[in-house]
């Protein structure tokens, strides 16, 4: 029997379908990380056939698969329940699909939703306390009210990466920020549209904040790298 590695990379292999499920089960029973990015998988049902036969799977990368037209049913999403890290960059998946996945992934710790053309965040009536890291760069988010929705959905976030979104201002008071993001330790607002020191000062009200990344924003463009570092620290 072919002994496949526990970290299996099958990116850009032209994969369109799952194939024989008994063969997946035989060869992939010990696989814990699976990279299927850059393939032609356009059906959640096909992906479910793969995942349901990889019982040790904790990391799944589905980036750049054309999943935007596929509807994800709750029963199908249940096969993803053991995953802790999920990458859906450039899949153009809807927020409805994201919510369905979140409902069925009770141990999900890291979620990547970059390059999905989101111009708003659709909130969920349920909050998901397992998530620690959210990477949602290179979208079209502009309103801080949308970022607040992330705080309500993911109250235990440690790391929030918002780089390359045109966020112009932080609209909340410091008190509101600390309530929305009580556990946030790191935030990246690289290449956002922030142009006021008052907005930067608000980030200091986050009770557990340790790291703020602000490269490429209008506010610090006139300064040298060393001056930027000193200003942000101050």
TrEMBL record:
Coiled coil: none annotated. InterPro entries: LRR_dom_sf. Gene3D superfamilies: Ribonuclease Inhibitor. Signal peptide: none annotated. PANTHER family: TUBULIN-SPECIFIC CHAPERONE COFACTOR E-LIKE PROTEIN, TUBULIN-SPECIFIC CHAPERONE E. This is Tubulin-specific chaperone cofactor E-like protein.
